[in-house]
Amino acid sequence: MNKKRSAISPIREDNYPEWYQEVIKAAELAEHAVVRGCMVIKPYGYALWENIVSYLDKSFKARGVQNAYFPMFIPVSHLEREAEHVEGFATETAVVTHRRLKKNGDRLEPSSPLEEALVIRPTSEMVIGDCFKKWIESYRDLPLKINQWANVVRMEMRPRLFLRTSEFLWQEGHTAHSSKEEAQAEAKEMLDLYAKFMEKELAIPIFRGEKSEAERFPGAVTTYTFEAMMQDGKALQGGTSHFMGTNFARAIGIEYTNGAGAKTFAETTSWGVSTRLIGAMIMVHSDDDGLILPPRVAPYQIVFNPFSLDEAVLNYIEEWKSRLKGFRIHVDKSGMCGSKWKWIKKGVPIRVDIGMRDIESGKFNISIRSKHHEKYTFTQDEFVDQLGALLEKEQQDLYDRALAYREDKMVHVDNLDAFKKACKEKEHRFIFAPFAANKGLESEIKEKYGVTIRCYPEEMDFETKPCIFSGSNDSRIAIFAHSY
Amino acid sequence: MNKKRSAISPIREDNYPEWYQEVIKAAELAEHAVVRGCMVIKPYGYALWENIVSYLDKSFKARGVQNAYFPMFIPVSHLEREAEHVEGFATETAVVTHRRLKKNGDRLEPSSPLEEALVIRPTSEMVIGDCFKKWIESYRDLPLKINQWANVVRMEMRPRLFLRTSEFLWQEGHTAHSSKEEAQAEAKEMLDLYAKFMEKELAIPIFRGEKSEAERFPGAVTTYTFEAMMQDGKALQGGTSHFMGTNFARAIGIEYTNGAGAKTFAETTSWGVSTRLIGAMIMVHSDDDGLILPPRVAPYQIVFNPFSLDEAVLNYIEEWKSRLKGFRIHVDKSGMCGSKWKWIKKGVPIRVDIGMRDIESGKFNISIRSKHHEKYTFTQDEFVDQLGALLEKEQQDLYDRALAYREDKMVHVDNLDAFKKACKEKEHRFIFAPFAANKGLESEIKEKYGVTIRCYPEEMDFETKPCIFSGSNDSRIAIFAHSY
Fold this sequence. Notes:
The structure is a homodimer. Chain A is α+β, with helices and mostly antiparallel strands. Chain A has helices at 16-27, 43-62, 76-81, 83-90, 125-135, 180-201, 247-252, 276-285, 311-323, 339-345, 356-361, 380-408, 416-424, 439-449; strands at 30-32, 39-41, 66-67, 73-75, 95-104, 107-120, 144-153, 167-177, 207-210, 222-229, 235-245, 255-257, 263-265, 267-274, 302-306, 329-331, 350-354, 363-368, 376-379, 410-412, 430-435, 452-457, 476-481. Chain A has three domains: 16-74 and 123-285, Bira Bifunctional Protein, Domain 2 (BirA Bifunctional Protein, domain 2, 2-Layer Sandwich); 302-406, Anticodon-binding domain (Rossmann fold, 3-Layer(aba) Sandwich), CATH 3.40.50.800; 416-481, Translation Initiation Factor IF3, CATH 3.30.110.30. An eleven-stranded mixed β-sheet of chain A has the order 3-7-8-14-11-10-9-22-23-21-20, sandwiched between helices. The interface between A and B is large, with 63 and 64 residues.
């Protein structure tokens, strides 16, 4: 079989990481900034993020979460209090040491050193915790549910757009509760919310579950996670939701007076997702001709692509655009030839090519992005009737395709030899294996085989077998995979 | 006449700056952060900001502006290219010099110095300019209209919540055009957009006009501004819109190929407003009992305040809440006595106090925030019919009251003695005086009299008299005022 020519070079099977960068470039989603490690999110990529934000923000608010904004600077001494966190990620961070630039000839140099150095937030965990401490007095103030949309910084010397950059955008939710059960349920329900978002909006099948001891957030009692498989078989963690018990409240001092008048530590949670989700979406759906976007989050769901800029054609399109309410529609008025490929590379779910002949015949020629080599012809009535259903079908098709891909790359093993073999495969896989909790062993496995435990998956019915490493019967099924 | 007891202490006439801080505290809008110079925007204050963002963002998009996101770090060498900007504000800025913290006993200290220090954006003018340079090739790429919602930093040692903090939130729009007229019109239309927002949404009367030479943005051909009078008679600049001509494009190198194939510098604009608008709104409308919010931006337009938490009362309220569609309604279920004052201090436009007696009588007792010592009683039908109109009236009343206040504090002078006298008045004023452009004189006036030129107001019909300082006939009416 002949290979079709592809719009993206290299193609996935030749060089997956390079293909990823080229898809982003061709779709004009983002680019590397002049400043090392940072990215510019271009309008098309940012519109995608706005759709993600809009959905999640509404969902959070429906749960009684309130947004607020906290300063991005953290005094270094505040990090010293929370050693465990610092081990986690606060070490690779931007440190502000001066508050002025002064001229030295033609050059500018730092001047006015700060009394105490400031770190730019890698997370606002501690800053928000300090506010909780101040804001919470009695059980009447609970639950307190706060979310922040903000930029955070983790200095990164080997950046990859959306996946790993020094600065990125995210949301972090923090809640405090009077009961353990309520806090645990909150962390779990946030996982549900994210999972629904991933599956229904981003069309990404995920495994939900708990993190293992080694992968758990510092200080968390339970870290819930959702993990998706990329088209190279590697796992990507979409986000996490942590139940902290009273660990965090004890470290920071978040106490309230309970109904009986006694001082009590609050039970807390935190949960977040970031612009990384865009990276996941790109890697799960796109093909060798570029980006493919799920209709529900696509900035444009439909693009009208006129063959000419004749007034008759443009008027016809505008008329149809105003008739099709409730869809996000873009009209390409650039008058550039070859713009068909532009929209394929930008992953717009439905493209309608229109010329005078189509107007005369009263037909619509449409192309659906995930199967763009086929053309469909509709009468005007059919078009109006079926447009919504076509978008829904494309949404579902993308999910189903990703699910089939993933199912094909899952392997269950019940012995070490099978595990070793699976780890070595050229195309990576999700390896399901019984494992008995052992933090030391986890790092050993990572070092030896390159895979980590992505999660102990929930709601799956497995036969319980002994741990393939230790033989212990106190085992659970864990998903091992190479990961981003 | 006896002074009424007030909920805020001190009252405006005793200590205006202190009153301002207390209003913010009582309304739970924001608080000073642990980090010097920064603020925490609390949920109620952030909800206000979200309403501001939502309105402006829609308005920008309706004009074809696209949002994007740019890195917050600027290499110091980039600032060196643009000396004029650095003089403006880039000197008081946060400088990142290290990219890691390392442990030294129990302490953490900066380590891994960066090869080149980074500045946290005081504005993204240059970062966005660099992208424009890359993104714009031909006239077909113009106009390019980009906006960013982001945090920016200008190190501030004497912070005032919302008015002046080291970190604040803002939007900055940047556009590039092929014709001077189009760019100038863009800058002007953005001023119109902001002006409409100030007057219609925030109920703040403003003067719109051009900045004088001394107050103009570095590199701008024209800086448009809108200036509002606070309740101490001082001026506050609400925002600015700059027409840069080709000055900025020349400095950065933003060129495009025009229709004839020649390389041409683009004509650019930039425009922005910040969380400072919240400060303006507080200072213009609030009274000695606390915050007063214009209904159009208030997080809650109506609060139901039950006298008891009886199920019958709460059910009655919920029923009415679901019946009153299209309003932002809050139900106080705290069961705290004295919550009436909480809502007065939070500036909710309409408060409905409800007890069993009101349910039985079928009446609503309402209180309108700006005249909260009066009570109004409505039948249920009247309430439903008139609620929208009541909110609209409150919106208009706030505007009218602010306008009357301002009119009362304006003075026109045509000679230096009258000017000097006006500058010395205890309660500040807006002083209208003929002035002939002279940058040196402006700084002299500022030093001598404490006032600056806020703007040359537009669309006002004044008799042209000679400059009160120089006697020159080449004069325009300028507004002089003490300012924030």
